[in-house]
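Q: Hi! Curious about what Exosortase D, VPLPA-CTERM-specific looks like structurally. Here's the sequence.
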Amino acid sequence: MTDITRSHSPIVSGFFHWGTFWLLLATIAAGMFYWNGISELLEAWQLPEYSHGPLIPVLSALLFLRQLKTVPVNHGPVHDRWPGIVLLVIAVALGAAGRLLEIHDIVAYGLILWVGAILLISFGWDTGKHFWPPVVHLVYMLPLPGALYYGLSTYLQGVSSELGVFFLQLIHVPVFLEGNIIDLGVYKLQVAEACSGLRYLFPILSFSYIFAVLYQGPMWHKALLLVSAAPITVFMNSVRIAIAGYIVNHYGLDWVEGFTHFFEGWVIFIACVLILFALAWVLVLLRRDKVGLIEALDLETEGLGTQARRIGLVQPSKAMLTAALLVGCLAMAWKAVPEREAIVVEREPFTLFPSSVGDWRALRHGSFDPEIERALAANDYLLANLSQPGVDEPVELFIAWYKDQSRGGVHSPEVCLPGAGWEIAALDPIEAVDETTGQSFTLNRAIIQKGVNRQLVYYWYEQQGKRTSSMFGAKLHLLLGKLANGRNDSAIVRLTTRMGAGEPVAAAEARLQDSMQDVLVKLPRFVPGI
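A: Let's find out. The predicted structure is below.
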């Protein structure tokens, strides 16, 4: 777009003029429109895993100013601002979708696109497109979706624990790993505690990104520095586990408590950073130009203040005016609309679950440990044994109901079962039929084993009358349900039965099929459909 004619007299001569005025107005409007996403970030940054978050915008700004030093000042008109407007529309649409669905993470994603749009509007496409590194770096301030974070952290904890146990076995320290317990004989270390050093994975990923951007060398060197962050973090945490095991074996429990607290914090981070520097040094040695590590890492910071003052050179333009008015009007319009409250459905609590389900007798187990309940984060849950005269093995019934899934996620058994020491030998979606309604649906059928013990598992997700075997399908139904009727509730149902020695799978399957049909009859009272 063309610039607004300069016949307008500046509001204040010098730094503050129509260009900076519209930029300031656009920034304030974005702060209002994306506030739900910003507040979500502020809340996430209080967690140890994301405590590095406040530094990310600062570091991105420094990366931008360093890059701006290579861009000459343009006093002429800028004609290629329209890609910025296109990106702005996408950013606004994403933010609006997040606010409409009340998924604040999506609003935060839109905020990052808004930053990219403002750069394209300010500099034009030809110049602004080169500022993608600092914009992409902002991704590291975002919290991962709950289900993805839980699955990723559990997987990395498993890898780190296996590697730590391997190191202990190399130095002849007796150790046994079962699920989320590292058994050192006189001392049992929880995997979550043993792998607390992994909480620094995200700041290390951010550091490796900056490292790769600053490194002056071949692209494959940059790529190697970038992707090495996760393996280095897992390796260092495995070393931490091995050292803890060695201390227990040779010096006793009194020493290991102090060690685990000392070696779980920034010591892991600093050690990983030093390994990154060592890796960069090795890469520099392999280069033919024989530069030093300091020369290879462009750490020049001189003149950044001068570059920051270039904000006063922002030209007034119709594109920047559009950005300010569009986002500002949307923010004010959204404020005027009454907030839509989530629909609270009428349901019976699981405490009223009947003691008999068809031909099966239901005996409640009671409650989980407080630690498990916190991890489960369900508003209501049921854990019961279903037994039947003449049937040797009972069926365990587990149902977890969530009042509001917009700010969390169901923990998939694919993640929870390995954490309890079970190996998933087979996992497949199968078709099932609710004989009461005649409707078919898909559920997950898994065979799990721990040593000689084997179990058959059925589980599926209940999304307001929709049943699916896919967690992502459940998320899609959640979004559609939120749009259609304002509901956020969700549930997961799991049926498990032990397979006796030599018992065919078909016999266990018959137990689950029979009990499932009886449970489906009672389920709508406690997990309402549409």
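A: A fun detail: The two ends are 49 Å apart (CA to CA).
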